[in-house]
Amino acid sequence: MNRSLNELLHAHQPIIGTLLTLASPEVAEALALLGFDWVFIDLEHGSLSVQDAQRAIQAIARRSYTLVRVPDGTAENIKRVLDTGCDGIIVPLVNTQSYARRIVSLAKYPPAGERSVGYGRAQGFGLGIAEYLSSANAQTAVIVQIEHKDAIANTDQILSVPGIDAVFIGPYDLSGSMGLLGDISHPQVTDEIDRVRTACLTADSPYGIYCANVHQAKMEIERGAKLVAVGTDILHLACSARSALETLRQIS
After folding, report:
1. Taking Cα atoms as reference points, which of 99, 179, 112, 103 lies closest to residue 142?
2. Which of 8, 12, 55, 60 is nearest to 39 (CA)?
3. Is 45 annotated in the active site?
4. Per-block average pLDDT, block size 10, for the chain (252 residues)?
5. Which domain, by its residues, includes 247?
6. Total of domains in the chain
7. CATH code assigned at 153
């Protein structure tokens, strides 16, 4: 991991990850040992805390990149999560250019923004603060989610905000905002997702998307997605266990 995640976002290869939803450093470490490029640590849904996220990041120990989805784009959430030492943040439900600008400001130290300075794990608990302060603005990835019909209309403006390193498409919440909750294959939903893809490719801006399975992930990579999250820790566990159980049931 000689390159920052931001540098990798502009390389040629897709970046393959999965969601961490369990408060288990061991699960996080196992996912990194398997070779996932990045681990998506989700604080928006489920019961994970900032402390859980930091323990997972420590367990991963630079084997994989880590992105933490904050509950929302408040100053408290952004600065506390960035102080864990993650490689970047994902902010949900970003519908406007002004909100995107605000997020960037909160994630960047002065003069680029207004992030306050503290002694957390990211700064080596104070032991490496000078080095961190000199590199954090450039190396910290700021990724915003486009997952609402209002955001679709503002995609070009959101992409134009300096400091937004990528967008992450949220098909499920987008379908809900369109009155088609959960029907992510509905033509109206897929058309709106295509609008975001096209805008990102035109602007040469990396984009990512969540995929429920390998088949979906393969299609998204072929369409140009750079940051792909496939499945969740619990889904991987359950699907593997179900496959083993069904195979053995057929024998007995």
Report:
1. 103
2. 60
3. yes
4. 88 94 97 97 97 98 95 97 98 98 98 96 96 96 98 97 97 97 96 97 96 95 96 96 95 77
5. 5-251
6. 1
7. 3.20.20.60
